[in-house]
Amino acid sequence: MKTIAKILPVFCLGSMLCLAETFSGKVVDAACKDQNATPPAAQSTNPPSAQTTNACEPTASTSSFGIELSDGKVLKLDGAGNTKVADMLKNSSNKSSLQATVTGSLDGQTVKVDTVDIK
User: Fold this and answer.
1) Which helix (H) or strand (E) holds 49?
2) Given 22, 46, 51, 100, which residue has the most CB atoms within 10 angstroms?
3) Domain ranges of the chain
4) What pTM, to 2 d.p., does this model score?
């Protein structure tokens, strides 16, 4: 009984650390965003135009997706997330300016996706 009393708090603490995070933003072509990334100094003097912003919208051939957060930061999705988004895009009638909520854990700049909800 004493052993269980000692182990239980450790498991509770461990489960709290493993909770998933939620990220909301615009679905983008992550490879395109990588290619069009500009240094921070250039961003402050040259605001992005509407053409550049729309240039990285996902298409039927997109295989690497990301979520662009409200602050402009792009988080890439893992393989499972890419598959889920690609399947949802095939079934979606609205293919531009897709907003999504992604639940998962962040590993560097990549989200290990648990769920994706596209609006």
Assistant:
1) none
2) 100
3) 20-118
4) 0.70
Integer Cα distance of 65 and 67 in angstroms: 7
Query: b/e per residue, 48-66, with b = 16+ CB within 10 A?
Result: eeeeeeeebbbeeebebbb
Mean pLDDT of 46-72: 77
List, in sequence order, every residue forming a beta bridge with 67; answer none if it has no partner.
27, 75
Compute the C-alpha angle 63/98/45, nearest 5°. Answer: 90
The reported pLDDT for the residue numbered 61 is 87
pLDDT the model gives residue 55:
75
List CB contacts of 69: < 8 A, sequence separation 6 or more.
23, 24, 25, 75
Strand runs labelled E in the chain: 21-29, 65-68, 74-77, 99-107, 110-118
Most confident segment among 17-26, 28-37, 51-60: 28-37
Nearest to 111, CA basis, from 30, 17, 13, 11:
30
The partner residues of 65 in beta bridges, in order of sequence, read 29
**Predicted pLDDT at 76:** 96
